[in-house]
Amino acid sequence: MNMKLMTLSVLMAGASLSANAQEVNTYTEKWTDNIFLGFGVGGMSVINDGFNEPTLNLNVQLGKYITPTWGVRAEVSGLWQSLCSTPKSSLVGSDGKYSKHCKTFVETNFDAILNLNSLFGNKNVLRAVDVYAFAGPTVNFGSKGTVFTGESDAANQLIVKENDDFKVRVGATAGLGLGFNVNEKWAINVEGRFGVTPSLFGDASACRKAESTARLTVGATYTFGGKNFKKVADRVIEKEVIREVPKEVIKEVVKEVKVEAPSKAVAAAAVFFKIGKTDLSDEGKVNIKLIADAIKKSPAGAKYQVAGSADKATGSAALNQKLSEQRAKVVYDALIAEGVSPSQLEIVSKGGVDPLFFGKDKLSRVTVIECK
Questions:
Q1: Rounded to a whole number, what is the largest CA-CA distance in the chain?
Q2: In this predicted model, what pLDDT tens digit does every residue of 313-326 receive, in sequence order?
């Protein structure tokens, strides 16, 4: 069973690499993107002649989402394992019970994580629920447990004694999890994990060479900065916009404003954002400076609407509304910082919208500054 589970771990890692190969159009801007920290609490039981008395299990995780489909993590967990004090096995002490049935241990798991939603086509990283599988090698640390003394008691049962020498055990684990995404950074997780390693209880265990364990935990994960995946096309979104927008429209966006009348002020200008983001790119900052200079040269009576939007194709309605509000506020604040009078500006948030330009969803991740 140990070899089968280890083989499953290797196959799952291979599937993860295959999924990654199919997502060559996805990238992260920085190596620090999509790093997460998690913790969990639950119960653990040794499977030896059935499920044994469960014990408390705590874990802490550190990992990284490599693509929307797969990731990796390391997990440290413990604190005890327990065998029932009245086992069915004859491998017991002279008192008819395990002389020490609860042992402290620490376990380290190295998991490949496979997001099943993404694997089967749902690439929306802001979905409400994630279903994922994980598997990998495990190493645990604890005492040696018990050893045979070579003697038998009056009932002709083999006598074992405690041996608390430090020992390292290697095996494999696999499991399934549900992630309930509270927002772009926080998720609540429920996980079940099954593992096989040599027994922590040594010769007193009937399955001393390959003892199974099962655990169920509930916890939370925090993704630093939120899940942040980009398509290669998004890397050059501003360049694409310039290539696709007719030259006469570009000139209208960046030209200086004629001051004959309010109707001759800036007709419309756009500041684009990356998926799930509200911060300004360097190109966006340059565009805002040009827009601000044009607005300041327009007649005092000219009014402008600063309308934030998100693309309807990704994210929930609530998240898109929040993104549109934040994008409008970011552009508004940047224009004020460039010297534009607040009395000339009005903030509007449109939430998730259908494609605004050229039928492309990505061009709806935008704040439009428009003369009213």
A1: 112
A2: 888 888 889 999 99
